[in-house]
Amino acid sequence: MQNDMPVENAPDLMPLPDQKEESEMPPDMDDSLPPEASENRIRIKTQRSGKGENRKEKHRHPGLGTEGNDVLTNNKGGKVKLKGGAGDDKLIGGKGKDLLVGGEGNDVLFGHRGPNILEGGAGSDIFVLNRGRGHNVVKDFNALEGDKLVLPQKLSFENLTFRQVGNHTSIQQGNRKVGLLLGVQASSITADIFVKPPVLANLSPLTTPAPV
After folding, report:
1. A single GO molecular function, which one (predicted)?
2. What does the alpha-carbon distance between residue 24 and residue 110 come to, in Å, rounded to a whole number?
């Protein structure tokens, strides 16, 4: 496959995910639900399709979705795990170090501020990136499954550099880190995997973070 974008071998450019650095993947993040994920920290809107009608339910829950199409939002900050489960879910992190897990279905994962870990699961997922200290780490990006990336505002594919860091790809604009794709070869990145910001249910068009 022809690829004319800059790809460099730069193992010292970005620490691997198991290294302790605040701007990288949080070293203490695991698959358990942290205590900070209390009921007043998560908003969930579940949309279920019934026979001939759509039923919407609003409730609070510590970060777990259902088999329906859920919208999970960390609206208070702090370290939180949001897990969508089955269905086409929208997961929106807060200002802390969040772990967003889409599960089955075609999900949208938006880490927002803070260094976050995004895991789409099965399906064609959309990962919304940011940059600066709070860039996101994407655990399971797979273009063959239809996964896509969304860039921050005023940032285009032509502005990016893709560097090979071990088995991972660092996405950067100059020295600014935009994202880290685990297990992805930089030479496989093409412009067609980047899309415009999606619309998140009734939350209006998604606004990605402006450049810092």
Report:
1. calcium ion binding
2. 17
Considering the domain boundaries, does residue 200 fall inside one? no
Task: Please indicate, yes or no, if residue 133 is contained in any of the structural domains.
Answer: yes
Q: What's the domain range around 143?
A: 39-195
Evaluate whether residue 209 is within a structural domain: no
pTM for the full predicted model: 0.68
Locate tokens 């032509």: which residue?
158
101-151 pLDDT per residue, tens: 998 999 999 887 768 899 999 999 999 987 656 678 999 999 999 999 998
42 with 82: CB under 8 angstroms?
A: yes
Number of folded domains that form the chain = 1
Q: What is the CATH number of the domain that holds 117?
A: 2.150.10.10
Of the CA atoms within 13 Å of residue 58, those in its CB half-sphere come to 2
Distance (Å, whole) CA 171 – CA 129: 10
